[in-house]
């Protein structure tokens, strides 16, 4: 995966599909605050099992592309700050819902936001996860957290995802 992209995978309901979501920064930076007048693109795609021996997996042409401009236009700055979103995690419960980390590089605050990718609306409100003050109980985390984002794999394949045929493995 390119340095400017951070992605994540999760399985859909049927267990025969994997949905991928990727955040690509428009400024080409791997980490740090966004360059002025730039943004990002969220892209979601589905890979499904075909059931045949020659091509076991195929991409479904269902890409959902959402730009930061579309998100910022559809939501107020209070409901969705104009910061870079990172580490997307797709919801296992709600179709088209992505949970993302907002990192405010100016004050060190880490927040979580959920966005419905189908209508580009923030679901609920932005929740502060770590406050940016160094004199709090989070001080050690605040000092170390930028390094955590550099090489973080946000999730693993769900343990319940069993891609073996059910008739052979009861």
Offer a concise description of the structure.
By secondary structure, the chain is mainly β. 11% of the residues lie in helices and 38% in strands.
Task: Provide key terms for this protein.
170 residues; mainly beta; 5-stranded antiparallel β-sheet; 9 strands; disordered N terminus; DUF1618 domain-containing protein; DUF1618
Architecture overview:
With 170 residues, this protein is mainly beta. The protein has one domain (5-150). Helices cover 11% and strands 38% of the residues. It has helices spanning 68-74, 139-150, and strands at 5-11, 17-25, 40-49, 57-67, 85-90, 97-104, 109-116, 121-122, 127-130. The strands form 2 sheets. Strands 5, 6, 7, 8 and 9 form a 5-stranded antiparallel sheet that branches. A 4-stranded antiparallel sheet has the order 1-2-3-4. The chain is elongated and about 55 Å long.
């Amino acid at each position: 995966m390119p340095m400017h992209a951070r992605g994540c995978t999760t399985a859909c309901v049927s267990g025969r599909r994997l949905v991928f979501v990727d955040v690509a920064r428009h400024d080409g930076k791997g980490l740090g605050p966004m360059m002025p007048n730039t943004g990002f693109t969220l892209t979601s795609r589905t890979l499904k099992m075909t059931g045949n021996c020659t091509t076991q997996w195929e991409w479904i042409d269902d890409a959902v592309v959402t730009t930061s401009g579309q998100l910022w236009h559809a939501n107020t700055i209070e409901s969705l700050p104009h910061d870079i979103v990172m580490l997307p995690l797709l919801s296992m419960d709600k179709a088209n819902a992505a949970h993302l980390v907002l990192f405010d590089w100016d004050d060190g605050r880490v927040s979580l936001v959920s966005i419905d990718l189908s209508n580009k609306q923030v679901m609920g409100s932005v929740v502060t996860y770590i406050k940016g003050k160094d004199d709090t109980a989070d001080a050690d985390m605040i000092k170390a957290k930028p390094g955590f984002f550099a090489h973080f794999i946000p999730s693993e394949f769900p343990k319940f995802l069993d891609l073996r045929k059910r008739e052979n493995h009861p």
